[in-house]
Amino acid sequence: MVNAPVAHPPAENPFDTAIAQLDAVAERIGLDPGMRDVLRHCKREFTVNFPVKMDDGSIRVFTGYRVHHNEARGPVKGGLRYSDHVSLDEVRALAMWMTWKCAVAGLPYGGAKGGVIVDPSALSAGELERMTRRFAAEIGLLIGPDEDVPAPDMGTDAQIMAWIMDTYSMMHGHSVPAVVTGKPVTIGGSSGRYEATGRGVMFVTQEACKYAGVPLEGATVAVQGFGNVGSVASKLLRDAGAKIVAVSNASGGIYDEAGMDIDALIAMPRDRASLRFDAPGRRITNAELLELPVDILVPAATEGQIHAANAGNIRAKMIIEAANGPTTADGDRILRERNIYVAPDIVANSGGVIVSYFEWVQDLQSFFWEEAEVNSRLERIIKRSFQEVAALQAKESISMREAAYVLAVTRVVEATTVRGIFP
After folding, report:
1. Which residue from 133, 229, 140, 125 is spatially nearest to 182, judged by alpha carbons?
2. If DSSP states are collapsed to H, E and C, what string results for 274-295?
3. Are 182 and 359 a contacting pair, CB within 8 Å?
4. CA-based torsion, 232, 234, 237, 241: positive or negative
């Protein structure tokens, strides 16, 4: 199952949102203008147009991107997404957010991101494999265990990571499992990686409920984006005592005040094209789901879903950002003015990259951990990360997002300063 997109592209340029967030924290901490300029730019941007032979014998040219934002703290890390809506600015924003996410979690990584402009549901299995392998060969100049380690994202999965790992390995003459994470366990993947982002969302929700005084037991939850992250988070939040009353995907949503049968929803057959499901409840749009009267809203789809036009209509007491950049800068300002508690994306959805780090470490050592150990380590790191952000938020009387960005940017600046500017 892949991360579920929503029906429409984001309301504003995601890179504008990312820059606005950086500029705001730069002003707050009095960041040197030169250093701010360094962080506003992505270090390396790669665009490739590559041909693929289709099943009917025709040739189709695809466009793909790989962007490195910052590598001061270590090799860059970030997902690859397949979507019609992929753009260079989207990839730039996601790479920057990955830098902050890794820094907040204390991981020895910088941020990267990549993608191909394609609707994967429109390709046969053979076409998808050929496109993936050709793209892997094209970005082979950039990726590597010590340089840039891709992972799954929207529209990609463990199988696609396996093809990339195999392609890279064939190019180097030996198996290199640490070149990607999110692989099948049979070829060096980590136990618990598939559920990691959703599990991290659940851990952060538990902590956020404690800090915000919202009981998780019996809390009503709406989840936008019932893909990998949203479905796993829904199941684990249900198991923790919450009541999932609404879910959605690209085809729309379902709302049932009595609570939804999450296990049945997960078991329903879905395909890459529609991700449709059939379940009891009232049919709603993605826009309507965001404005439902629930205790907890979990946007787990794509960026830019909460913005100036709808932030004033949000009725949730708490928002847990399971997607990357689901709230625009204007939307975030409105949520702050309305005192709606937000657990920001660079904290809330960091479970995936945390367990990707575990997978990378295990691959490099050729020594693998039991799933219980993976989950325990994930819980310890992500809760520590949340608590550090919450402590700074309380100390400085700022929002959770501002606190997370202060921590992240400060850590990246410290690493950059210590390393110096070469030559």
Report:
1. 229
2. CCCCCCCCEEECHHHHHCCCCC
3. yes
4. negative
The answer to whether 50 touches 85, Cβ cutoff 8 Å, is no
Q: Shortest CA distance to 161 belongs to which of 356, 19, 324, 349?
A: 356
Among 239, 109, 229, 201, which Cα is nearest to 386's? 201
Residue 333's nearest CA partner among 316, 353, 311, 348 is 311
Structural domains of the chain, ranges and CATH numbers in brackets: 1-39+195-349+398-423 (3.40.50.720), 42-182 (3.40.50.10860)
- How many Cβ atoms sit within 10 Å of the Cβ of residue 411? 18
Per-residue pLDDT of the chain in tens (423 residues, 90 and over written 9):
344 544 444 457 999 999 999 999 999 999 999 999 999 999 999 999 999 999 999 999 999 999 999 999 999 999 999 999 999 999 999 999 999 999 999 999 999 999 999 999 999 999 999 999 999 999 999 999 999 999 999 999 999 999 999 999 999 999 999 999 999 999 999 999 999 999 999 999 999 999 999 999 999 999 999 989 999 999 999 999 999 999 998 888 999 999 999 998 888 765 433 445 667 889 999 999 999 999 999 999 989 999 999 999 999 999 999 999 999 999 999 999 999 999 999 999 999 999 999 999 999 999 999 999 999 999 999 999 999 999 999 999 999 999 999 999 999 999 999 999 998
DSSP annotation of 179: G
Q: Cα(319)–Cα(51) distance, rounded to whole angstroms? A: 42
Q: Running DSSP on this structure, what letter comes out for residue 144?
A: B
113 part of the active site: yes
DSSP state of 177: G
Q: Is the pTM of this model over 0.90?
A: yes
Which residue carries 């847990």 as its tokens? 320
Token pair of 147 as six digits: 């340089």
DSSP state letters, 304-357? T-B-TTTGGG---SEEE--SSS-B-HHHHHHHHHTT-EEE-HHHHTTHHHHHHH
Alpha-carbon distance of 233 to 88, in angstroms, equals 29
Rounded Cα distance between 35 and 350, Å, is 25
Q: Which of 77, 113, 235, 317 is catalytic?
A: 113
